[in-house]
Amino acid sequence: MPRSKVKLAFIENKKARKSSFMKRKECLKNKLKELCTLCGIKACTIIYSSYEPGLEVWPEDNTAFQNVLNAFLTKLPMERNKFMSNQDSYVKERISKAEGQIKKQIVTTRDFVKVNMMSECLSGKVSLAGLNSKDLNNLRSFAGHKLPEIEERIKVLKSDAPASQLHFINSIIVNGYNCLTINN
What we know:
The chain is mainly α. It has five helices and four strands, in the order αββααααββ.
């Protein structure tokens, strides 16, 4: 059974907070050790804590720790910070992703509304006379975007269909607009 998602919030109870810190600190060190072993990389960690004096480092071997730290510090700052993340940058990244998803959803919803309105007008459920100028402009622009696709589809149908089946598609010009009519 999967665990429920952990709520990322400050733990108010001091004893529970210290206990959680101690457990997670050990888990972090174990995960880092596994990562180094499985992927063949060199890594280190520095942990500052208000619960213990000083700082705690991993690996405990001072020379291995110094080698990894020196390799990191000798890199250019731009290269060092390339993949670095903190809570602020993480939150900003998540917000920008969410905003992008919202914008995509707005466009999708807007297109769906236009398609729905177009189908209602074509089926006779909604009269064009009852629409305001904004809706009419939306329908006109939507039809303008779809017209090349429709014309391409008609070309394909005309080239694939026998001549006896083509009598039902007619193209006429009304008020300067190219309109397609289908005869039954």
